[in-house]
Amino acid sequence: MSRVDEALAKDWFYEFDLPDGRSTTPNVPADTATIHTARLAMALSALEQTFDGDWSQLSALDLACHQAWFASHLARRGLDDVLAVDVRPEHLEDAELIRDIYGLERLRLERHDVAALQPGQLGEFDVVLMLGLIYHLENPVGALRVARGHTRRLCLVETQLAPNISGPTDWGSYRYVKQMLGSFALVDETREVFDGNREANVGTISLFPSLEALLFLMDAVGFDRVEVVPSDGSNEQLDSGKRAMVAGWVGS
């Protein structure tokens, strides 16, 4: 069996357009799968804005790369070095298959748990991707610090968003008031972990931020400029503001 036939026989989360013209079939509904192409279009738009189209000298890090759909697209567009990391070995096996099929020599794969990484542990990269991750984590703030510590120029964070709560709150006494700068919501992913859902948290407790909280936190962990990336109009969640991609720049 060829590597392409091997890919076509596997279960995929993404639609990979294979070199012979065939494609893998994603195991998600078509309207849900638009999140992948929307994220990619938005990410490429942010890269174009930042790097003016010459990406041949750029490096990228894809944190929690899943099957390396986004990382492989960056490698195919000529980035000099792309490191894709994930905690699940089965995801990295799928990513290795895609790398072999496309002959992506500049795509590196390593197993790491983002929750266990230290800021800058893997080096510095021109582009850092954190797509669809922080709402599956117990410590999203720590993950944002990890992302900032690896970012030389641009970091893209895409996530589900919680309803926002802001305004004054008592802080130990009615005499002392602090401003709430956003909010987090708590989700129980016990069922997903029990069912072996490979797209869920590896633990059971997940926190996810409101947009206001995410913007504040990306500024607080050290990004010099933070902006929401405009939706491309193809995904209901991103278009409606229930999800967002936020770009954080260093040195600009």
Describe the fold and architecture.
There is one protein chain. By secondary structure, this protein is an alpha/beta fold. The chain has a single domain, classed as 3-Layer(aba) Sandwich (Rossmann fold). It has eight helices and eleven strands. The strands form three sheets. The protein has a seven-stranded mixed sheet with strand order 3-2-1-4-5-11-10, with helices on both faces. A two-stranded antiparallel ribbon has the order 6-7. A two-stranded antiparallel sheet has the order 8-9. Helix 3 (69-76) links the parallel strand 1 and strand 2 (81-86). The longest helix is centred in the first third of the chain and has 22 residues, at 30-51.
Brief write-up:
With 252 residues, the protein is α/β, with parallel strands linked by helices. It is 32% helix and 27% strand. It starts with a helix and ends with a strand.
Topology record:
Elements lengths: L2 H6 L21 H22 L7 E5 L5 H8 L4 E6 L2 H14 L4 E5 L13 E7 L8 H11 E10 L5 E8 L2 E6 L2 E5 L1 H5 L10 E5 L1 H10 L4 E4 L7 H4 L3 E7 L3
Parallel strand pairs: 1-2, 1-4, 2-3, 4-5
Antiparallel strand pairs: 5-11, 6-7, 8-9, 10-11
